Amino acid sequence: xxxxxxxxxxxxxxxxxxxxxxxxxxxxxxxxxxxxxxxxxxxxxxxxxxxxxxxxxxxxxxxxxxxxxxxxxxxxxxxxxxxxxxxxxxxxxxxxxxxxxxxxxxxxxxxxxxxxxxxxxxxxxxxxxxxxxxxxxxxxxxxxxxxxxxxxxxxxxxxxxxxxxxxxxxxxxxxxxxxxxxxxxxxxxxxxxxxxxxxxxxxxxxxxxxxxxxxxxxxxxxxxxxxxxxxxxxxxxxxxxxxxxxxxxxxxxxxxxxxxxxxxxxxxxxxxxxxxxxxxxxxxxxxxxxxxxxxxx
Length: 297
Known about the structure:
By secondary structure, the chain is an alpha/beta fold. It folds into 2 domains: 6-103, no CATH class; 127-295, Rossmann fold (3-Layer(aba) Sandwich). It is built from 10 helices and 10 strands. Strands 7-6-5-8-9-10 form a 6-stranded parallel beta sheet, sandwiched between helices. β1 (6-11), α1 (15-31) and β2 form a beta-alpha-beta unit. The chain is globular, with a radius of gyration of 20 Å. It starts with 5 loop residues before the first strand and ends with a helix.
C-alpha cells in the first residue's frame, strides 16, 4: 500500500460549476492537509496550476487510475452531487457552501481561483491591442447542444444588442464571447477560442456583461466586477457579491402548466418554450440599471 493519502474529487457539469469547484478544493485541502487532491472532470483546464490540486484528469483519459489510486489504497472518494440537495433546489445557500456541507467540511472560501501564466496572458494580449477600455460580453451560454437562444439563461438577443448599441461609444472594443451556433452581436469582436485563452480575455476586460455562465464565475476568480443577468437561476446559489446581479422585472403571470418540471420550476436549457413565464422576453430586465453599471467608472 502506498504511503500517500489521496482524495478523488469527481466533478460533473459545465465550466462554471467547475470554476466554482476550485473554491471547494481549497476547503478540502484545509480540512485534509495531509491528503493530495486529485480532480476528475470534463474540464481539466480549469484546474491547471492550482496549488490545491495534486493531479487533474479528464473523463475518458484516466489510464491505470484504479491501480494507481484505488486498489489497495485508503483513498477518500468525493463524488457527491450538490444539485440533488434540498438546499440547492430551494435556493437556500451558495453552491460552494452546499458542496462543502455535502463533503462534511467547513467552507473557508466562496471565491473561485484560476491560475494563468504570464506567457498565456501575453499571447492573448498580443492578439487584441488594448488602446482603451474594453467591455466583454457573454450573452449566451450552456452546452454545445443548447439552442440558438435559451429563454431560461440567455440575454434576449434584441435586448443584448440594444445594450451594446447604447454603450459602444464608451469602449474602445467590445469583445463578444460566444459559440459559433449562438447569436452574434453587431459592433463587437466575436471570440471563439480555447478555454484558457478565454480566461485571459476576461482578465483584459474593464467591464463585463454576462449571464449565469462561465464568464461570471471566472470574473469572480479574477476579482473582476461584472453585471450579471439572472432568469431561471438565482444569484443566491450561483452569484457573487462583487457583481451587480440583475433579476427580471416582476411581471403578471398567466396560468400555465409546468408539466415537464420535476424538482425545479424551469428548465435551464430553455427548450421547453411552453414554460416561459414572460409575456415579452425583451422587456424582462431594466435597461437603465444595466447601462449605468457598465458606463460608471
